[in-house]
Specification:
zinc; Neutral Protease, domain 2; 6-stranded mixed β-sheet; aminopeptidase; Immunoglobulin-like; alpha+beta; metalloaminopeptidase activity; transmembrane; Zincin-like fold; ERAP1-like_C_dom; single chain; 7-stranded mixed β-sheet; 882 residues; 29 helices
Length: 882
């Protein structure tokens, strides 16, 4: 790695594979369009009709027919961020543009189908490039079907020739909404001037490139893109348009061959921190430019430093691991004030939420730091898995997300080896996947292609199964065939399919070539990727035979007597396995609870986190019943030794050195306070009140802020809530705002929770990207769960309109607000909600609602079967509680 750090004050109008110099001139989109019209070839006269039958109807499914494929695009876009456009009522944010796509006709055709959504088409022209003539066409946008988004170009008096070359020109207008989809607007407050500043950004995945320009918006329809952005000079970014205002034209170099969903565009006045990086591969030296973009005050305050520091070594590690150098000559990472997902892997221009890229020393926590490292590593892995090699269709999106999730742990381990994050994959991914995959309404990693057709179908796949089970299966496969063989197979896979598309059998074939552990028919892996669920195997260690008697579980006894003889990671896995087996009725529920008895003698994070995660289900099922009191007494008894182990750190607002110990300190405080340990609640309230008395002095360590804020607000009233709300409104640090936003949901005051729910409908109070997660936080509070469910039902049409089909899946909202459901009344509410809203209204939440119904039915049955047993167990085990 080489080069020196510098600060760039240039306009951040960046896109994939941007050139390093912009052509500056005064131009408008009208002028560009006039030049296009002047260069038109003559229109070809009609030819005699033919008797040959040529397909003319619409495609038989939601997929493009493939009769015409794109080869390259030239796209001009001009966003109007701050001006009032004439003849448009109540609208001040527009973009205009035109696109010329070069096409190859694969078979004789009368129609061209591509995608267009929410665009006003101003002009369409189809040119026969072989004969240099224009063809007479009509066009039709399918308005009646909200899922296909087809734009149909009909050729009059002519037939498109097989293997013929054509170009399709379209001119269009669109609105820069604040919906976080397609080409959208965002805003922030400039700290120096106090002015509101606007910017434009894009989020194309999964199916929103069609909202930016007419295109063939499917992952297999790869092409080359040449983008030109026409935008104002930064100095005039907040003024009303005047005659003679100058514009900049920023052209970008042609991209590599790629899918539409990883195209990216931003227009802002951001500044950057940059590095000129050289890497060595196969004795050759390669150079690329890295820039980390953010609000100017964030760059000046060095909030981008950590991201810039770790990006290069992670990228270099991946180059070595995959045997392929990073294929572009630049990489931009940009922290946006508003973004739907946590980050997006656009090729060469990765977009992030501010909380996923900016680390603020003394304000951001160790958890924030790990999150930033993990997200960066995830998105960098996508530069190979997803961008260089892309799944053929969305039904196999796990080939992107599973690999990126799995490789992220390796990438973070490379730059932060003391964190031991490779052990955390068990609790973060494996255990999460096991829980969801136990539902019959789960879905396989690889769904049938015909089952995934609409944008809602596609959005519904961005879930725990795709990310966590995908990563868990790849981890298992790596251990099964050997890590070296796995690496060899992956290198071969990436090399063969770079710049193209794959199906999962391509991966199996390359792995099978490097090991005898996989059969040529790929039978072993088909069961893991094409079926729902997972197997349960019990092994008798005396003779190596599989046995079915679930009462034989000697390792649980060893937890009580000799726990340190079992590796830490295995102690955590043992606890998790016991609870999963108990839910599946392979073992008694008391046996699972018995695995937590030894925890009073364990201070390690992984076993404690496994227990906290699994006992959370018991809390959800029983925190509204008579079981809750004895349960709290038992949990106090178990956690007090852990709380006291960290107490000296906590009272001095310090943290231990170990990464996982810092996480377990948070567990100790959270569990102790939540279960009524007075020393803990008094400590939280005292630290919070010290801050209230002097808000220029922060006595709470960044690691402990989330749990201290939450527990202090839970123990307090309106004054504590209003103070935190004011701090939230005034903070400019995204990670601090996230902590406060979560803490505000912890109050026990019903009226405050109701008001907070209403705030999620106002983007001036809660940003749109944070609205869904805020409702989820409120639903996790037992005082807010019913309020959140009633609110979601009452506002469903709003949420469906605002978020469905995008990367913010409504399925997560339904899933989270119904987690506590365990009564017949709640089950009937779910079924009524399902009956009231058809599949069109539910969209991407359809599967989540089915899972919620199944889970509620299982919860009702489980509570009925286990409530008495669990109550007696907690009463017995809590007798000696503090």
């Amino acid at each position: 790695m080489g080069g020196k750090v510098y600060i760039s004050k240039t306009l951040a109008a960046t896109t994939v594979l941007m050139t390093f110099s912009a052509i500056i001139g005064i131009i408008t989109m009208i002028a560009v369009y006039q030049l296009e019209v002047m260069s038109l070839p003559p229109t070809k006269p009609p030819e005699p009709t033919t008797t040959e039958t040529i397909p003319t109807g619409p495609p038989p499914s939601m997929r493009l027919p493939g009769n015409v494929i794109p080869e390259s695009y030239k796209v001009f876009l001009q966003p109007y961020l701050y001006t009032e456009i004439s003849n448009v009522t109540n609208q001040t944010f527009l973009f205009t543009g035109n696109s010329t796509v070069q096409l190859r006709c694969m078979e004789k055709s009368k129609n061209i189908f591509l995608h267009s959504k929410d665009l006003v088409l101003k002009a369409i022209r189809l040119t026969d490039l072989d004969e240099n003539v224009n063809l007479e066409v009509t066009h039709h946008v399918n308005e009646s079907d909200s899922d296909s988004n087809f734009l149909e170009i009909r050729v009059e008096n002519e037939v498109l020739r097989e293997n013929g070359s054509y170009s399709l020109f379209t001119a269009f207008e669109g609105i820069l909404h604040d919906d976080l989809e397609g080409f959208y607007r965002s805003e922030y407050e400039d700290q120096a001037s106090g002015e509101k500043r606007f910017l434009a950004a894009s989020q194309m995945e999964p199916t929103d490139a069609r909202k930016v320009f007419p295109c063939f918006d499917e992952p297999a329809m790869k092409a080359y893109f040449e983008i030109t952005i026409i935008h104002r000079e930064a100095s005039g970014s907040n003024t009303i348009i005047i005659d003679g205002e100058s514009w900049l034209v920023t052209p970008f170099a042609t991209t590599s061959k790629m899918s539409t969903y990883i195209l990216a565009i931003t227009v802002s006045d951001f500044t950057s921190q940059g590095l000129l990086v050289n890497t060595v591969m196969h004795v050759l030296i390669y150079f690329f430019c890295l820039k980390v973009w953010a609000r100017p005050d964030a760059v000046d305050a060095k909030h981008t430093d950590y991201a810039a520091t770790i990006t290069v070594p992670i990228l270099e590690y991946y180059e070595e691991e995959f045997g392929i150098k990073y294929p572009l000559n630049k990489l931009d990472e940009i922290a946006l004030p508003d973004l739907g997902p946590g980050a997006m892997e656009n090729w060469g221009l990765i977009t992030y939420r501010e909380s996923a890229l900016l680390f603020v020393e003394g304000v951001s926590s160790e958890t924030n730091k790990e999150w930033i490292a993990t997200i960066i590593a995830h998105e960098l892995a996508h530069q190979w898995f997803g961008n260089l090699v892309t799944m053929n269709w969305w039904n196999e999106i796990w080939l992107n997300e599973g690999f990126a999730t799995y490789m992220a742990y390796k990438g973070v381990d490379k730059v932060e080896p003391s964190w031991n994050v490779k052990d955390l994959i068990v609790i973060n991914e494996v255990q999460e996947a096991l829980e969801v995959d136990a539902l019959t309404t789960s879905h396989p990693l690889c769904s049938a292609e015909e089952d995934i057709q609409t944008p809602s179908d596609i959005a519904g796949l961005f879930d725990v199964i795709t990310y966590s089970k995908g990563a868990a299966v790849l981890r298992m496969l790596s251990y099964y065939i050997g890590e070296n063989q796995f690496k060899m197979g992956i290198r071969s896979y990436l090399n063969e399919f770079k710049y193209s598309n794959v199906v999962q059998k391509d991966l199996w074939r390359h792995l099978q070539q490097v090991t005898f552990a996989l059969t040529t028919d790929h039978y072993v892996m088909k069961s893991w990727t094409q079926q729902v669920g997972y197997p349960v195997v019990t092994v008798n260690t005396n003779d190596g035979k599989v046995y079915q008697d679930p009462s034989i579980f000697p390792l649980i006894q060893q937890l009580e007597t000799r726990p340190n003889e079992i590796f830490t990671i295995n102690r955590g896995q043992l606890i998790d396995d016991a609870f999963n087996l108990a839910r599946a009725k392979y073992v008694n529920v008391t046996l699972a609870l018995d695995t937590t008895k030894y925890l009073k003698n364990d201070t390690e994070y992984i076993p404690w986190q496994s227990a906290v995660h699994n006992l959370d289900y018991f809390i959800l099922m029983f925190d509204r019943s008579e079981v809750y009191g004895p349960m709290q007494a038992y949990l106090r008894k178990q956690v007090i030794p852990l709380y006291e182990y960290f107490e000296n750190y906590t009272i001095h607002s310090e943290v231990p050195e170990s990464h996982t110990a810092q996480f377990n300190q948070i567990n100790a405080i959270s569990v102790a306070c939540a279960n009524g340990f007075k020393n803990c609640t008094d400590m939280a309230s005292s630290l919070f009140n010290r801050w209230r008395e002097n808000d220029t002095y922060q006595p709470i360590h960044p690691n402990l802020k989330t749990t201290i804020y939450c527990n202090a607000i839970a123990a307090g009233g309106e004054d504590e809530w209003e103070f935190a709300w004011e701090r939230f409104q005034n903070s400019t640090v995204a990670t601090e705002r996230d902590k406060l936003r979560y803490a505000l949901s912890c109050t026990k005051q019903i009226w405050l929770l109701n008001r907070y729910l209403q705030y999620t409908l106002d983007p001036n109070k809660i940003r749109k990207m944070d609205a869904v997660s805020t409702i989820i936080y409120i639903a996790r509070n037992v005082a807010g769960q019913a309020l959140a469910w009633d609110f979601v039902r009452a506002q469903w049409n709003y949420f469906s309109q605002q978020y469905d089909g995008g990367i913010i899946a409504l399925g997560e909202l339904i899933d989270e607000v119904t987690l506590r459901f365990s009564t017949e009344y709640e089950l009937q509410q779910l079924k009524q909600f399902q009956a009231e809203h058809g599949e069109d209204s539910l969209g991407s939440a359809s599967r989540a609602l089915e899972q919620a119904i199944e889970r509620t039915e299982a919860n009702i049955k489980w509570v009925k079967e286990n409530k008495r047993t669990v109550l007696e167990w907690f009463r017995r085990e809590s007798k000696t509680a503090y």
